[in-house]
Inverse folding.
């Protein structure tokens, strides 16, 4: 089942796509991202109240939940680490309330019509994995997106495979798989027009949402 994630963009700071330029750090709490549910693949399978089950599993394993003013500070520190690691990498970093969004353009992450991560992108994902391991009190949602070329069914499947490939790579680098939720969004959430080659290139992407683990 495919469920759209609505990105609320109030009270946020951002980084210009693909430029590596930093935005302003922000501890503001308020804007959020819609909940995501659905059927997932592989060892990252989750159904129903996936966030609740992830939280229970992590807290039960001894990962401390964040609360109060500690949330903003913790996410600020993680955001700063990601911006430093991903500068000039082609990955944009956007702060949305308590959450951090990484946008990984498909033209640098995957070859055309492939779900295999490009070898030249390994170093970038290694950097992401290092930060995620250091800041382990967060949940990590990975969304695959495509342009509208081809059938909706094929695009859904391709986006799922691409998101899964990124998740599997991160787990292979030591990120706890219990933190991860994977969702293929297909062509349902374009960020640019699909009527031009440049727009379609922006729509082919993988996004990682990093959110604080709270009780």
């Amino acid at each position: 089942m495919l469920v759209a994630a609505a990105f609320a963009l109030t009270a946020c700071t951002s980084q210009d796509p693909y430029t590596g330029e930093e935005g302003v750090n922000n501890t503001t709490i308020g804007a959020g991202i819609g909940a995501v549910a659905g059927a997932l693949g592989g060892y990252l399978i989750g159904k129903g109240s996936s966030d609740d089950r992830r939280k229970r599993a992590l807290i039960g394993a001894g990962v401390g939940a964040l609360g109060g003013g500690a949330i903003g500070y913790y996410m600020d520190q993680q955001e700063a680490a990601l911006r430093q690691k991903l500068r000039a990498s082609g990955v944009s970093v956007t702060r949305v309330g308590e959450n951090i969004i990484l946008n990984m353009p498909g033209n640098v992450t995957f070859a055309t019509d492939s779900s295999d991560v490009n070898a030249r992108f390994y170093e970038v994902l290694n950097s992401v994995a290092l930060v995620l391991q250091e800041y382990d009190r967060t949940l990590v949602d990975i969304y695959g997106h495509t342009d509208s070329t081809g059938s909706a069914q094929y695009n859904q499947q391709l986006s799922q495979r691409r998101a899964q490939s990124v998740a599997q790579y991160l787990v292979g680098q030591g990120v706890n798989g219990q933190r991860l939720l994977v969702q293929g969004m297909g062509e349902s959430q374009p960020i640019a027009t699909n009527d031009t080659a440049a727009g379609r290139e922006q729509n082919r992407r993988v996004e990682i949402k990093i959110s604080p683990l709270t009780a």
About this structure: The helical segments are 50-60, 70-86, 106-109, 122-134, 152-172, 197-203.
